[in-house]
Amino acid sequence: MTSGDVKQLVWGAILLALAACVPLVANGYWMSIALTIAMFTVLSTSWALFSGPTHYISLATAAFFGVGGFLVGTGMSDYNTDYWTMVVIASLAGTVLAFLVGLATLRLSGVYFVIFTLGLAEMIRTLVSWIQNNFTGSRGLYVLTDLGEADIYIHLVLVAALVYLAGWWIARSRLGFAMRIIGNDEMVARHVGINTAFSKVILFTFSGFVASLVGALIAPRYTYIEPNGVFSPELSFIVVIMALLGGTGRLWGPIVGVIPFALLQEYINANYSNYSTLVLGIAFLVIVYFLPHGVLGRLEETWAKRRRSTW
Amino acid sequence: MDIIITGLLLGGTYALIAFGLNLQYGVARIMNLANGEMIVLGALAAFWIFVADAISPILTMLIVAPLSFFGNWLIYRFLLRPLVRRAKNQGQLEVDSILATFGMAFALVGIMVSIHGEYYTYSYLAEPFEILGETFALNRIVAFCFAVLIGAALWLWLYFTRTGMAVRAVSVSTEASGLVGINVPQLSAIAFGLGGAVTTMGGTLISTFITLDASVGVVFTMKALIIIIMGGVGDIRGAIVAALILGLVETAVARLIDPGLTLAAAYAIFVLILLFRPQGLFGRKPS
Questions:
Q1: ipTM, interface predicted TM-score of the complex
Q2: Among the CATH numbers 1.10.3470, 1.10.287, 1.10.150, 2.40.50, which is that of B2-276?
Q3: Which among B83, B107, B219 has the least Cβ separation from residue A278?
């Protein structure tokens, strides 16, 4: 570990500790926005851990998130299980699912992978609704806990710490090195003896685990869990937009996109809720045509240019 | 029997839609994820014109087709062509075009929601018609016939005209067809426009017997992709068979188990194909 590495850790810890202090100053409205931001920060950062280096656009976030939220709901309403037990079970189930999906799909690339992951959430959603309609009878599930938004927020900050630590470690490990080579040229990676499938499955599973954990932790916020809500494909797209908007080149890139986009969405939903889909579309187009490497990538380019011109 | 015929009728329209996407992906090499929204646009146009002026959806296709051709041509020329030029490799182009066409899809959904946010309900030729002693809705049969007609016309164009031959050449190899003097960018734009026009006409046909709304486009994109992957990219014969299979399976699942599970069934087929025959039903294994 070099001194630079340690410095990054210290800075990260300080910033996270500051983030954990938000509930002390924020009132109800801002607390709720901070919670949304925390949720998307965790989701898009863990998304970028896998999709950033590999350029595989995964739309499976909603599937894992939904599994997490839904299992917590079922466990608590239908089986009277304790909340924390269900959180553990839900995140384990999400991890197993992600591992299986990873094994099945990572030989695919490009469009096949995108559609596969997009369809996954849709399929689980229709299956779950079908099972509920025909066998269990109840469509809505209640998650009643005495956790407030501030408690959930603290949980999410802790998960964020875990994700950032994992990302920091991966970037310095053989695994991260392997991922960068895979991202540059998968053929080369295979020829120098990297087990590409293994590396990809590990990271995909990790991001699936995080998404299902977030789904489980955020469930008490909604109180009432419904399959059409937790498996909403829109969530996957928002996560992709936020991560790409910020830039996936660096570990802290996604949060640069999360904060402004979450605020924008909050504003649009409050004032022009009919246009939220249109905004998503425009965001995608802006990213592709104007910010192909995210806001961070654009800034880094400008800095690099300025440095060269002052030489 | 009832299930088989209904399934085949549905499959016919699916085949037409997949034909459109195949033209776009096979020739212009852009996977158009806004494909489903083109279908919904066709349906919206049919609904709109039918409700306002009681003009038959079949005639609407005559208006919709050239508009959609031109619109898709513009999309290719001004939005997608720059991506093709900027891409350093096939992988980057793929990622860019996925994101760009998703963006277009969302933008189109947003626009369509603001035009008409409800279901596109209208009733056209909802009359009984008898085949082999069982009754079917006339609109499904008419839609099937027109899908076959359009598909046949397209096939004739592809196989018996000079431009059609050039289009097929580009789909075999972009570089080689450039070398023999084919204007690849121009032809790609034409194929993309034509594919879009065919898809939109498919949407108009579908809307005569299925009620759509602004947000279902992505479901149809998935179905068209499933058909193309099942049939093998660029393989028209395979796509037709795949579309008929999808139509049959969906109808069977809807009738025998639960209408809510059709999408799950389509997806299950997709997974099986990807795992066991990723090269498509009739494709050969890449060596």
A1: 0.82
A2: 1.10.3470
A3: B107
